[in-house]
Write a structure and sequence with these properties.
Elements lengths: L1 H20 L2 E12 L3 E12 L4 E14 L2 E14 L11 E10 L2 E10 L3 E10 L12 E11 H8 L1
Antiparallel strand pairs: 1-2, 1-8, 2-3, 3-4, 4-5, 5-6, 6-7, 7-8
Length: about 160
Amino acid sequence: MKLKIFGSLILLLFCSGLYRAQLTVHKLVSAGYVYQNGSFGELGGKLLFLKNDDFIFRLGAGAMLGSVDGKFAVLPKVQGDILVNFERNVDLYHSYYFLSGAELTSKYIAPKIGFSLFGLIDLTGGYAFPFGDKGLNGKEMKGLNVNVTFNVPTVLIHDLLN
């Protein structure tokens, strides 16, 4: 019971902090390529939290789809990113952001850094640290992690379809 009350208080504090910060939330559909000891396609969605164009926060969830040792595999993934642009008072020309974040799957955690063009195309690299001994279909999921991701705002998709 105490744990439920504590969790509710933390959630309430977090939500009230977001309300005061006046963050704008945008939904994104993402698709891309992931190299993690094999080639994977990635499909998912992200929430972009925006207060100004200097710092952008993103949270996402998706699935990595690929063939590992001749067997089809699906690996769920959650991730968080912070995008930073150090140019002040330049709203229209924010064409690039430095990106730092991490992704977490059921098999590994991978801190990453990179850059993003217009916040729509991400190029990142990092290193994966595996959980447990089993791996994915017997293949260990550790080492170099490279991501190329395209993020499309749902508003853009809606406008294109109408």
